[in-house]
Amino acid sequence: MKSPILFLHSEDDHLVPIQIAQQMYEVAVSAQNAERVKLVSFDGALGYLHNGLYRDAHLPDIIKKFVLSL
């Protein structure tokens, strides 16, 4: 895998536990340049669960920062 990867994950995701996202991140980092792989986790207290990350006011800035870092 050579593509940049941005993992976005809520700590209270009830379908995919945060540990799975962390494992996928670690695999991706080991397979390519670590600077092209990022994991951003969102505090479970925000209540985003599995599909609510779009509600985070900082999401556009997180994505922009990742894209500009490539």
Secondary structure topology:
Layout: E1 5-10, H1 18-31, E2 37-42, H2 59-68
In short:
With 70 residues, this protein is α+β, with helices and mostly antiparallel strands. The chain is built from 2 helices and 2 strands, in the order βαβα.
Mean pLDDT value: 96
* Contiguous helical run count: 2
CA gyration radius, whole angstroms: 12 Å
Give a quick account of the main beta sheet: strands, pairing sense, barrel closure.
Answer: 2 strands, parallel
End-to-end separation: 15 Å
Q: What portion of residues belong to β-strands? A: 15-25%
- Label the overall shape: flat
**Strand neighbour order, sheet with most strands:** 1-2
Which regions contain 5 or more consecutive residues with pLDDT less than 50? none
Task: List the secondary-structure elements in sequence, H or E.
Answer: EHEH
Q: Percent of residues in helical segments?
A: 25-40%
Q: Give the number of domains.
A: 1
Q: Helix/strand-derived class?
A: alpha+beta
Give a count of the beta strands, DSSP E runs of length 2 or more.
Answer: 2
Protein name: Monoacylglycerol lipase ABHD12-like protein
InterPro entries: AB_hydrolase_fold
